[in-house]
Amino acid sequence: MADIDYFELSKSTLEELAEKGDTQAMLALGINLYYGIYDRIDVDNAWDWLSKAYTKGEAKASAFLGEMIYFRQVEIKGFDSDDQYVNKAYEFYKEAAELDMIAGYKGLCKMIMRNDYPGRDGDEILDKLEEMKDEDEESQYLYDLIQGGDYSPEDINPSNEFGLDDEEDEDDEADEDDEDEDDEDESEDGMIRRWLSRDVPEEAETELSLSLDDILATLDEPIADDLDDSEFEFYERFYGETIRDLLLDVIKSDDEAVEMLVALSKYYRFQPGEDIRYAAYWAHKAVILVEKGLESGKIDDSNFKPMAYGELGNVYYSYSYDPDLDFPNVEKAAKYYEIAAKTDYSYSYDYNTNGAIALASMAELYKAMDIADLGWSNGINRAWCGQVQYFRGYAQTAAKYWNDALGKSKGWGEYFMGRYCYMRGETSKAYQLWREGASEGSKECELELANRILSDPSTCWAEIQKQWEIMDRMYRNDETPAVYKYIYKFYMDKSFKIDMTEDERRLVAYGALDKGIRRFCPYCAKINYDELDDRHIKPAIEAWGYDGYEF
Q1: Could you check whether the bond before residue 328 is cis, i.e. omega within 30 degrees of 0?
Q2: Could you tell me how far CA 252 lies from the centroid of its own chain?
Q3: Do 249 and 298 form a contact (C-beta atoms < 8 A)?
């Protein structure tokens, strides 16, 4: 059958011949599957047949294997870095070019244009492209891009996707519009798929058990309202409604993409009932993007590193209702918080605080003190160092730190010292400290006062209304995680007058607990532990430093 044109044979005939070991049939079948000759592109089966053909000596399969590898259309077992994919693709492309295959030369040109070419003969390869431009439409396209000089990596796609946007149905104008829209969607999906398949978080030492299909299935989830309501810094530059829109913005952007991915992670982390693994996925992607951007020079703002690593720490410090998932993971949280705190050179964040509590929960007290002492002004350092000491059981030492922080810690010293005094029965002193802290702008102190005033049976109705408005504002605006336990307390208190049915009150109360657990409130975790007897909440309580004081 040597004189037969294999590409003229039917799919079933090629399959029959390929099954019998005919390498040319394997090659033709793989190429046809790759380019969608049988109505749809089937990369996975194309890879299988082309790999078999290559293994049996059909060297012409190399160009197509290289293309699939370079554009990450397939995943190679054991490959855990971009360099491995790039180098393997280069080997295949180079072998195809030595066979004088246009596909091999085009692949090498694409690597050059995307700044991935590891060889030193780039000028010769580009000269070859000029020779090929009249023989091949895609070669002409690549040549024109080089001549124009204004192109991005997203303009250079796998050869089996070339021309998808130009397909039209000339018989029916309405169908033509629909087909254009479908082609655009397919092109967008291809772009997103390729971007997602690079630097997958599973390669960043995490066990997320999420597949690419899992992530793709969430693309059309509406998120705009949730993001806008959350005061994420980036949202003014986000013009879409769904995760798909956000990812397209991310793919087309540079440094601000980190901020977008962090925001997407926060979206999943803050929503009770959302799968926390997705938050971890996007936080890991942000970390990977930061490291690559800093290395390449595309990202020159060091604030992005603590932002990304800090969010990753937040994710691993979050509670999941699935006992089979690895959240909270205090060791990982402490690891990422420490990186964030030590790279926060401008002191824009406070990841040192959660990092200190996480380290303290693992009995690494001295290391926790070192982390607590980073970033914040001296008074705030002292206040949080006191909290770390208290968490480890050194109450007298903690009180000394808090006393040193009074009047110079934006209310944190007053907040912690007030709680300590209240537990010791020194109520008047606690009130005084909280009033002083509230005057310094401490939401926590303001909240403690509101709680005590609302809890006092002698409080007049006008004052109750005033304090309830304060607490309700804090809850609606997410001003402090401490508010959630008090929302639960008052909605569950039947003697506290709220115009709701008992079922409605319970719904709000448990909704507040869900939010509080996701936002590091150990008291919400403790309440849920008591009410629901959920043994899996215990790690969260310990990690967040529950000190025994509930209300």
Answers
A1: yes
A2: 17
A3: no
Query: Rounded CA gap, 512 and 207, in Å?
Result: 29
| Cα–Cα dist 64/44, whole Å | 12
Alpha-helical runs (H) found in 198-254: 212-216, 224-228, 243-252
Q: Determine the residue type at 385.
A: C
- What phi, psi does 486 have (nearest 5°)? -80, -35
Cα end-to-end distance, the chain, whole Å: 86
**How far is residue 137 from each of residues 35, 163, 164, 382, 518, measured CA to CA in Å?**
15, 9, 13, 68, 53
Of 131, 107, 127, the closest CA to residue 117 belongs to 107
How many C-beta neighbours within 10 Å does residue 427 have? 12
How many C-beta atoms surround the C-beta of residue 382 within 10 A? 23
- The 10s digit of each residue's pLDDT in 364-407 is 888 888 888 876 667 888 888 898 889 888 999 999 999 999 99
Amino acid at 388: V
Residue 407 gets the label, from left (phi > 0), alpha (psi -120 to 50) or beta, of left
Contacts 24+ apart (CB under 8 A), 200-205: 201/280, 201/281, 201/284, 201/285, 201/288, 203/80, 203/81, 204/284, 204/287, 204/288
Here the tokens at position 512 are: 């507040």
Over the stretch 342-373, which tens digit does the pLDDT of each residue have? 888 776 677 888 888 888 888 888 888 888 88
SS3 222: strand
In tens, the pLDDT along 186-201 reads 467 777 877 787 776 7
Q: At what angle do helices 483-492 and 461-477 cross, to 10 degrees?
A: 130
Rounded to 10°, the helix 173-197/243-252 angle is: 70
Q: pLDDT (tens digit, 9 = 90+) per residue, 300-321?
A: 667 789 999 999 999 998 888 7
